[in-house]
Amino acid sequence: MSGNPEEDDLKPTATPGYKPSVAKTAEEYAQLDANDESLNRWKASLGLNADGSQGVASGPKLSVLTLELDSPTLPAGKKLIFDLSDNGKLADLKKNPITIKEGIEYNVRITFKVNHSIVSGVRYIQVVKRSGIKVDKLEQMLGSYGPHPKNEPYIKNFDPEESPSGMVARTGTYNVTSRVTDDDGEIYANWDWAFKLAKEW
After folding, report:
1. In the prediction, which pLDDT does 1 show?
2. What span, in angstroms and rounded, lies between the C-alpha atoms of 76 and 100?
3. Among 29, 30, 42, 126, whose Cα sits 20 to 30 Å from the Cα of 146?
4. Which residues have CB under 8 Å from 163's CB, separation 6+?
5. What is residue 122's three-state secondary structure?
6. Both 80 and 131 in a single domain?
7. DSSP assignment letter at 103
8. Which of 32, 162, 65 is nearest to 104 (CA)?
9. Sign of the four-CA dihedral 129, 138, 186, 4
10. Residues 33 and 96 grouped into a single domain
């Protein structure tokens, strides 16, 4: 048994029968099946050159840039975007809950950049608690990525969700811990934020 239940909540769900392969360097991936034309096109789409080079490999393999909550019910001009590159703004997210309208459909959008290497099994995990009790866990598999050939960020839209509704749902603050991790257990982002449900945005 683990001694930290909060860490257990944020562990990825294991897929029966799936075992992540041993991580390979970009050069090893580039040299695999070098004569396979379709595979070479796929590797080129990941930013792998024929020799496996991708530029200088320094810093984290993946940087999470933003997390956005989007809904067709949002008032014109209103955006709920978390800038995850600014530590000062991240600290504010926990202290100042955002307001989400009850009973509406919304979806989460995440923007991230792969800086170097191939990142396998990237996933977003979110645990929601109210009064210290877990009320929801969202786990979204994002996939495996290499650096974008044009050094552009990746944007991933999650499946639509519906916010809770009712008087009980509107009482209290929901505390959320979000994490972006991969098959190797490397954590690329981990932050806390909070929200309240209301009748209107």
Report:
1. 47
2. 15
3. 126
4. 100, 101, 102, 103, 104, 106, 197
5. strand
6. yes
7. T
8. 162
9. positive
10. no
Q: Is the pLDDT of residue 54 over 50?
A: no
Angle at 57 (CA atoms; ends 60, 55), nearest 5 degrees: 135
- What stretch of H or E contains 121? strand 119-130
Report residue 189: phi and psi, to 5°: -155, 140
Q: Which two tokens stand for residue 12?
A: 């990825």
- Please check whether residues 159 and 74 belong to one and the same domain: yes
The answer to whether residues 81 and 41 belong to one domain is no
Structure tokens at 166: 């009712």
The token pair at 43 is 């590797």
> How far apart, in whole angstroms, are the C-alpha atoms of residue 48 and residue 33?
13
| Nearest of 103, 112, 111 to residue 71 by alpha carbon | 103
Same domain, 165 and 111: yes
- Into how many domains does the chain fold? 2
For residue 123, give the nearest of 39, 184, 60 by alpha carbon. Answer: 184
Q: How far apart are the first and last CA of the chain?
A: 42
Residue 132 backbone phi and psi in degrees, to 5: 80, 0
What is the dihedral angle through the alpha carbons of 45, 50, 53, 55, rounded to the nearest 10 degrees? -50
Domain check: are 108 and 196 in the same one? yes
